[in-house]
Specification:
Largest sheet of chain C: 8 strands, mixed
Largest interface: B-C, 46 and 47 residues
Number of helices of chain B: 10
Helix content of chain B: 25-40%
Shape of chain B: globular
Radius of gyration of chain B: 21 Å
Chains: A mainly alpha, B alpha/beta, C alpha/beta
Strand order of the largest sheet of chain B: 6-7-8-3-9-10-12-11
Structural class of chain C: alpha/beta
Structural class of chain B: alpha/beta
Helix content of chain C: 25-40%
Number of strands of chain C: 12
Strand order of the largest sheet of chain C: 6-7-8-3-9-10-12-11
Strand content of chain C: 15-25%
Oligomer: heterotrimer
Chain lengths: ~300, ~325, ~325
């Protein structure tokens, strides 16, 4: 409004270089969060380790060596060994791939499903919106863990038969974890659509003759994704924990696949005399989730719509 | 006598208020309650009124950005209200709109070039990339910006500059009519003057027709040839800007004019005080909507709604006792 | 001695790109019982000045970089928090543009008006409610006995602004700062509120510092006017003197860029404009802030920042040039 200024001048004092896109601006704001930047660096290191580590580390994942069982960290086994003498570092690196991949894949599925449903609900009015919200509420009120167990029990074997043990379980876990995490995203997207739909720049597009599809794709969706990205990072963390929990319960991947949760499961009987066995996977899960949450914090501030709009 | 460019006939817009378990319609907001007017080619019709009078809704209904509840809108001999969506989309090339809020009317994630060029893309108005860029640069320069601004984003501009981008966007299709919906209300005073002058220059250069909607009577009087005063969804008076100021007929117009602050401490004003607040458009008063605050109201006013009647050449008033 | 005497006030804010000099050396005074108009466009620092007087600036990111705010001789900047709290609302009150943000939506109007009374005058709940009803009567809200138990959302915009005025005046302050009190209101309601303000001022015998960007409002209400631009005062005069003989090019430009309804209707005169836009106030250097936009600027204007100098009795200008219009 003319003549009214906030008592604390904020956004307008910025002196951005010409042509700075909102993306570049967001990155600049993200960089101001030391914890977020440090977490990003740490997470990228972890990803690099699990991607390249198994290729570089000479010890195999399931080399059984009873003479070296339950050893603490040493030069030949930097993270120690388990009860079969298998090298924990090799297992952690290999298993890390799966844990992180599950996290990423489950998040992607949740986001895709959530954005699609939220967008359709958000752009339509009346019956379709009501129906989709009813569906969302239904899924939200389902008891997740019991249902998870039920679905695993029902479909595990058929998926294993169809796609092979590893891939089959991977698909099942991703579907099951992602399938229970799309609802908050859908609600978020729908809320964003409701507010953006009334914004003048969307009205302006309509006045210019833009079709509904163009309004959604070009105008509403790009501006709705900020909070979704933040929610997405939290989803990755939650998915990693979910997979770890399933594996810890013995319901996830087959026992010879060393996901971090599985390693934790295997170590639980030996906590007294081989605490290192539980410590490292636990620490890895903890660090992965922690860094992702900090990154999410940084993203939330960087993508704050009040600043960009 | 040439046909007017735009004819609006008994335009009505009611917004339903839903509630209850199944979203039944509980009540209605009578935003626009039977509005009729004409706009001739090349002129500026000002629509002025206070909040809740329905002026912005009227402007949006003309473009069918908001669907009218009933009434007819005729543009250059074609019935806009009866058009199918495809045909309506082509009308976007004839009628455009400039919005109030320079901060909310531009997509923050699009470059200025994309914002201005969107209409060119939608309606396939240019054939080559060269033509497209040239056209956009031309528009930027017309509104007082430059080619340097092509790849910039809205957040890098001031309010006045953003409004210029909005004007360039509206001009991209070469429209005949532009609805200016509080186009300068959110700008600082000195920037307002710049944009007002720009709008006037564009009108002279391109033969544009404006519907200028605002609540600031001084600005409306300055830029308009004719002015319509709205109150609670109806037009109460319509006249040339000179006649409206020198010979106001409707009691509401008189009160409005007397309330406008004048930047001259020596100016002797005679205030016509209005008691109370504007009634809610959900339950407007019966008969003449203004009778609850009118200094000359009589019993007849609450029973019968006065129609717009001519009192002089081009001067119409809706009042039982004036005209 | 003036009631409020601001001398060389500097309020700066820390931002990503450096210090924002929102208020950069402002001299301003209000005498008992007078209405001072502070006029300027967005970014000129008028609101920040008002918030500085009330010590409502968040620090960080703000800080007082210099100057004094003398209230009846005492410097408010160095006053301990406890004492400042006693001065707020009791001696200096403030009303803002958006009444909805000054009113807490979950408390009744009566409770909110009564809050100041109970804090400063130690009234109990019944007494406070009675006083609240009295205040509502004085601001001409009909059926105040009922309305005192209503919530803000049940009031219209104009009524809310009246309620906010009632709140501000409940402890009979000596100075009322009104920051764009009518900008968000319809013009007929604005007229009502301005009339009410004049009435209350006479009744309470208080001084008013009216901050606005509307020259018309200032012409109607103020006795003396201060024009601000880019964090500084550029002109100060009585209201008649300012409109008849504006001396600073910015004031002149401002007055000529506003359409006047009487002339707008009878003869269409093209509006004069001030080219360019308000400068960014991040670590500004020396030199007149208005020079880049000034028609009459020359080399010495950018060399040194002009101070306020007297050009006629009661008329000060911050410009090195000598105008007589």
């Amino acid at each position: 409004m003319a003549g009214s200024i906030p008592a604390f001048p904020t956004a307008d004092s910025r002196r951005a270089a010409p042509g700075t896109s909102p993306g570049a601006e967001a990155w600049r704001r993200f960089k101001r969060h030391k914890m977020a930047v440090a977490s990003l660096a740490l997470l990228l290191t972890m990803v690099a380790l699990v991607v390249f580590g198994p290729l570089l580390w000479p010890l195999a994942v399931n080399d059984i060596d009873f003479s070296a069982r339950l050893q603490g960290p040493s030069l030949s086994h930097p993270l120690g060994t388990d009860d079969l003498g298998q090298d924990l570092l090799a297992r952690m690196l290999y298993g890390g791939r799966i844990s992180l991949a599950v996290g990423l894949a489950a998040m992607s599925m949740a986001i895709c499903l959530g954005v699609t449903i939220g967008a359709i609900a958000g752009i339509s009015r009346g019956a379709l919106d009501a129906a989709l919200m009813w569906l969302t509420d239904l899924f939200l009120s389902l008891p997740q863990l019991p249902l998870l167990l039920l679905l695993i029990y029902l479909f595990r074997d058929s998926l294993k038969a169809g796609f092979g043990p590893e891939v089959g379980v991977f698909i099942m876990i991703v579907l099951v974890i992602g399938g229970f995490r799309w609802m908050p995203v859908a609600r978020l997207v729908r809320a964003q659509f409701f507010s953006l739909r009334e914004k003048e720049f969307v009205e302006a597009a309509r006045a210019l003759g833009a079709s509904t599809a163009r309004q959604v794709w070009r105008h509403i969706l790009p501006n709705a994704l900020g909070p979704v990205i933040v929610a997405g990072t939290i989803d990755v963390a939650a998915a990693i924990i979910a997979e770890s929990t399933l594996s810890f319960l013995g319901l996830g991947f087959p026992p010879d696949i060393p996901t971090w949760g599985r390693i934790l499961y295997d170590s639980k009987d030996y906590l007294d005399f081989a605490p290192h066995w539980a410590l490292f996977p636990g620490l890895a899960i903890f660090l992965a989730v922690l860094t992702i949450n900090f990154i999410g914090d940084g993203l939330r501030d960087a993508l704050d719509p009040r600043r960009v709009l | 006598m040439t046909m007017p460019l735009l004819t609006v006939n008994q335009l009505v817009k009611h917004f339903p208020i839903r509630g209850g378990l199944l979203g039944r319609v509980l009540d209605k907001v009578h935003a626009v309650d039977g509005v009729s007017f004409e706009v001739n080619t090349g002129e500026t019709l000002g629509i002025v009124g206070e909040s809740g009078c329905g002026k912005s809704t009227t402007g949006r209904c003309v473009l069918r950005l908001i669907e009218p509840t009933s009434g007819e809108i005729w543009f250059a001999g074609r019935n806009v209200t009866a058009m199918a969506p495809d045909e309506l989309r082509t009308m976007a090339r004839d009628m455009q709109i400039i919005f109030q809020d320079p901060y909310a009317s531009l997509n923050p994630r699009m470059t200025v070039a994309a914002i201005i060029g969107e209409a060119l893309t939608i309606h396939k108005l240019t054939k080559t990339l060269r033509e497209y860029t040239d056209r956009i640069v031309d528009l930027l320069e017309t509104v007082g910006l430059s080619a340097d601004h092509l790849r910039r984003y809205p957040h890098e501009f001031s309010g006045g500059q953003r409004q210029r981008v909005g004007i360039a966007r509206a001009l991209a299709v070469n429209p005949k009519l532009i609805v200016c919906d509080e186009a300068v209300s959110a700008l600082d005073v000195s920037i307002q003057a710049q944009v007002i002058n720009l709008l006037e220059d564009l009108q002279a250069q391109r033969g544009l027709t404006y519907i200028f909607i605002a609540h600031d009577l001084s600005v409306v009087e300055h830029i308009s040839n004719r002015v319509a005063v709205m109150y609670l969804g109806r037009i109460v008076e319509i006249a040339s800007s000179r006649d409206l100021y020198t010979r106001p007929q409707h009691p509401y117009t008189e009160a409005l004019l007397s309330a406008v602050p004048i930047p001259d401490p020596g100016f002797k004003r005679r205030r016509v005080p209005l008691q109370g607040d504007v009634p809610s458009p959900i339950h407007p008063p019966s008969g003449c909507h203004f009778h609850t605050r009118c200094p000359i109201a009589k019993p007849q006013c609450s029973r019968e709604s006065p129609a717009l009647k001519p009192v002089a050449e081009g001067h119409w008033v809706a009042c039982h006792f004036r005209g | 001695m003036p009631l409020l005497d601001i001398q060389g006030l500097k309020t700066h804010f820390k931002t990503d790109d450096g210090w924002l000099h929102a208020v950069d050396g402002v001299d301003l005074s209000v005498d008992a019982g007078e209405t001072l108009g502070v006029v300027g466009e967005s970014g000129c620092g008028k609101s920040v000045t008002a918030m500085s007087v009330m010590r409502l600036i968040a620090m960080p990111p703000g800080r007082f970089a210099g100057g004094q705010i003398l209230w009846q001789g005492r410097d408010l900047i160095t006053l301990p928090d406890e004492e400042m709290r006693r001065i707020r609302m009791k001696e200096i009150a403030i009303v803002f543009q958006e009444p909805m943000t000054s009113l807490n939506p979950v408390y009744t109007i009566g409770q909110q008006i009564g809050e100041a009374l109970r804090l400063h005058q130690g009234l109990n709940r019944r007494e406070a409610t009675e006083r609240a009803i009295e205040m509502l009567k004085r601001v001409h809200i009909p059926t105040p006995e009922r309305r005192v138990h209503d919530y803000p959302h049940q009031f219209s915009g104009g009524m809310r602004q009246r309620a906010v005025l009632a709140m501000a005046l409940s402890c009979s302050p000596r100075l009322l700062i009104a920051d764009e009190p009518t900008t968000a209101l319809d013009v007929t309601i604005q007229a009502q509120i301005l009339d009410l303000l004049a009435e209350l001022k006479a009744e309470f015998g208080m001084a008013v510092m009216l901050i606005t960007h509307a020259m018309g409002v200032v012409a109607e209400v103020a006795q003396r006017v201060v024009v601000m631009y880019a964090g500084k005062v550029v002109e100060e005069a009585t209201v008649h003197e300012l409109f008849e003989h504006p001396r600073h090019p910015y004031t002149q430009g401002l007055i000529h860029s506003i359409p006047r309804i009487d002339t707008a209707a009878t003869r269409k005169v093209r509006l004069e404009t001030i080219a360019g836009s308000v400068p960014k106030l991040i670590e500004p250097g020396e030199g007149c802030r208005f020079a880049p936009r000034c028609k009459f600027a020359s080399a010495p204007c950018s060399a040194a920042t002009p101070g306020l100098r007297s050009v006629a009795p009661g008329h000060k200008v911050a410009c090195i040039l000598d105008f007589k219009l």
